[in-house]
Inverse folding.
């Protein structure tokens, strides 16, 4: 599934409306009932500085006990699509999410594997719950070149010093790529033909202030993520305390050995051989910081969503208030 080499990454993603409908249909049929994550494969072609996504197909639901080969399934599907003259080039994958909780280790590993084998691949994240509140939540992400190089190293060091030296932070792990939805002229004509007139009582549905539940859920998830970061910070503080205590014991041991050797030399005796200090005091492993970075990135994502919902709610409130205060003059 390797792709041709290129010199630059896609500037934006152009996705057909049919692909969006397929993703939404897949999530409605398999994911919404139990809020289970659904995944699928994106097909298309890279043209100049854009990545065109023209088709997709879902991964079937299967249990862990089943012997399901995902790679074989993908190859068979793309082979069948090629036979019927449909775009079959693999350009990424899509996944559903709920309340924007998609930034985790699983997403990082999956996108790294895709991007390592298919250079231009992207991951589309679709949030059906957010879409029901008036937002079409469809975002495209790629790993940054710095993260690809660092994560693909022979032995990546996720200690604070290693991440600082590589310049890796939660802000430059993933990069969001703009998404443009495009329909053909025939599809646009069809939409104009089947468009039904909106009834008068339904014309103000966009003023519905039903985003409070979404705001509350996002705030709860944000609080849980902040608690995770706080727990991780406490672990790191405990590590620093243990490391400081161990360094003090090391210094005391070295000073004591130096005093003993000085006394032995003064008595004409041979000094004691030097010991491996790391054998006496085993180094304390540094807690990895990758999970903390991902949780911090998730917190940033929750904050952006809260800002979007709050801005929409304020706008609706101002519009509704203006409509209520406006008095209609009786016709003369």
């Amino acid at each position: 599934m390797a792709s041709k080499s290129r010199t630059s990454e896609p500037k934006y993603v152009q996705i057909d409306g049919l692909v969006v409908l397929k993703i939404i249909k897949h999530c409605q049929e398999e994911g919404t009932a139990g809020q289970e994550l659904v995944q699928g494969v994106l097909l298309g072609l890279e043209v100049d500085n854009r990545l065109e996504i023209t088709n997709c197909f879902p991964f079937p639901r299967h249990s862990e006990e089943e012997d399901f080969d995902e790679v074989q399934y993908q190859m068979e599907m793309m082979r069948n699509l090629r036979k019927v003259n449909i775009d079959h080039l693999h350009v990424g994958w899509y996944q559903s999410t709920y309340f924007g909780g998609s930034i985790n280790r699983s997403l990082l590993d999956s996108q790294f594997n895709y991007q390592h084998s298919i250079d231009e691949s992207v991951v589309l994240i679709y949030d059906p719950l957010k879409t029901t509140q008036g937002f079409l939540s469809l975002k495209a992400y790629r790993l940054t070149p710095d993260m690809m190089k660092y994560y693909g190293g022979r032995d990546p060091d996720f200690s604070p010093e290693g991440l600082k030296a590589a310049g890796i932070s939660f802000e430059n792990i993933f990069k969001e790529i703009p998404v443009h939805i495009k329909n053909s002229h025939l599809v646009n004509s069809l939409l104009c033909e089947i468009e039904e007139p909106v009834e008068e009582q339904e014309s103000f549905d966009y003023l519905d202030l039903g985003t409070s539940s979404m705001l509350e859920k996002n705030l709860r998830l944000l609080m849980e993520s902040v608690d995770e970061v706080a727990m991780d910070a406490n672990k790191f503080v405990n590590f620093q305390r243990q490391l400081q205590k161990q360094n003090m014991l090391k210094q005391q041991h070295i000073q004591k050995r130096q005093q003993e050797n000085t006394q032995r030399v003064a008595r004409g005796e041979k000094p004691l051989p030097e010991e491996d200090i790391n054998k006496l005091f085993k180094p304390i492993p540094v807690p990895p910081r990758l999970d903390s970075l991902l949780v911090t990135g998730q917190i940033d994502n929750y904050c952006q969503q809260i800002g979007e919902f709050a801005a929409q709610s304020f706008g609706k409130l101002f519009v509704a208030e203006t409509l209520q205060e406006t008095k209609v003059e009786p016709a003369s």
